[in-house]
Amino acid sequence: MTPINYYLGLGALLFAIGTVGVLIRRNLIVVFMSIELMLNAVNLTFIALGRAMGSADGQVIVFFVMIVAGVEAAVGLGIILAAFRNRLTVNADEFNLLRW
Amino acid sequence: MQALGPLILSWRSVLAPGIVALTAVVTMLVGSGLSEDESESVGWIALTGLVAAAIASLAASGDHIVTFGGSLIIDDYTAFFYLLIPVCSAVVVLFSFDYVAALGLPATEYYALLLFATTGMMLMAGAGDLIVMFLGLETMSISAYVMAAMAQRDPKSSEAGLKYFLLGAFSTGFLLYGIALLYGATGSIKLEAVAQMVRKHSIALSPFVLLGLGLILVGFGFKVAAAPFHVWTPDAYEGAPTSVTALMAVGIKLGAFAGFIRVLLIYLAPLHAQWSGVLWALAALSMTVGNLAALAQENIKRMLAYSAIAHAGYILVGMTAGRSEVGPALLYYLLGYAFANLGAFAVLVAVEQAQQSGTKLDDLSGLARNHPMLAAAMALFMLSLMGMPPLAGFVGKFYIFSVALESRYVWLVIIATLNSVVSAYYYARVIVAMYMREGAERQAQTRQPTLLFALAVAALATVIIGLLPHPYISASSAAYASAEQVLRPATAALQTK
Amino acid sequence: MTTWFPVALMTAFAALVVGLMVTINAIVGPRSRDPVKGEAFECGNPPSGSAWRRFSVHFYLTAILFLVFDVEVVFLYPWAVTIRQLGATGLVEAGIFIVLMLAGLIYALRRGMLDWS
Question: Which domain covers residue A67, as residue numbers?
Fold first, then answer.
């Protein structure tokens, strides 16, 4: 069986890729995809930990995280769509009406 | 019927949030069947549900039940927030009636989402495991993202919603990863089991626990708008419709702090040595950044956003101290903060409506002559936020700072006091604008009984909580003590050793 | 080391074969470019319009509805697996869940999200 550290390492790596993606990408859709990648990295971590410890909690949590991610996608894409209709862009740098 | 026994017991314990959630569904169904003009009346359904939930929570006080396999805790701490949160949401509903119509927001969705957000806040207060905490947080946040972006024709509103959503979802990732690591280290997501595990020295200092703790701090830091995780706050507060900003500044803060305080101060108390340093820095930074940036703001909503960051800093000062004496002070502070902020936003809503203007500082010029009552109320709320005796803001601040001082956080209290002095300037600017500057002659305002009622509630609460603090302090103490009870035997054992 | 040797060999062999095929194809293969060949393939019909046209927002709404309902049904699977252990309690709770989803569906219908006319 593959050692759990591999799964945890992969999870950490995916989480890091997602974080970097959010920080450096400027396309809102890509930023949003990076956030989803972070959530899925967490899902992988939960599953691996749950399996390693032989508890079902990890898998149950993943159900909830999936739901939350789905709802977030619905709401997030809706908000991005509304923003696009007002500004005709999905470039994060061009949303600059609000600043100090 | 016997098989349903445990279910009935469980449902009795979630009566208050259950009522709010059910009202949300009813609002959604009834409102979607009505025409656009008629649907504005669903606000009354929402109001009824919130009041009913507040009454139900009164009936539940004194209980101490752990239900749904440890996922929900019903004690006086929960009851405290089960009462406070629906009341705050009800005040928001009261001053939303005409505002929603004036902005052309979809009324059905507005009230349904407000109720869903309220449900989420209440769940955060009562959560007994990390996953319910997470679900409550998301229920409230996702509703709030939509509400912030609700004024669809206004580019500022959708931009505010967008920024709020992206950074909120980003922070959710951190919080969740923190929960995952904590789960991995302790083998459980139940707060009580986690607390028992971290009391063992060998586990408490494992990198998993420390990393998990750090990530959870980041996640909550975003939600309570503590610097340096505050960048979304001013933009989201400024762009969102003002009544939604009120909900964000009060309800979301209450929910997030209710969860944050329970997790950190009660269940992760054994790790105090590990997290107090981080909180120290967060507190000092939040106060300083919030107050200094607020000095330069011309838009009052934006100024109140920075003020909210600063107030999160004051609360974090108390949390840094981490002793059980500080718990009641925190709850009392939240109480005073909630009503003063609700009132301030109610005044802004009234001003926007009466003058058809924005929320710039200039728009308040001469308010004392045009609308003396509004100006007087606004002055009261500003003084309370500033921390002027004998109002609620002063007593709360004094209480928190004195406990922090007893815990030997002298430098932090010095920073906090200096910051309070600085903050007086920008709160006073509002008062000066209202009373000493000439504004354009404005038309008389349209009378709004519900808005005036909301203002009266907020103003009375701010004065009474400050003038007669004892009943509120003892309620806060009882609430916090009952939350701490879970760990009492264990803590006692530690002390005797 | 020895256990992984066949895998390494396999990888190297696969890379060699694929590399060879692509290279030989690029060198030897005949090439002809004309506008017809560059067209998007639409199952044999001549393509019409630009690929960059706007879609009706209804597609988006339907996709969102599908996403939400499809994902939420996931909660019924664990219940289905443990239906006997959970008994009446589980039945009532799943019933509440389904009623809530129905409420969502009624709301979506009333808002005309499934109305394509």
Answer: 27-88
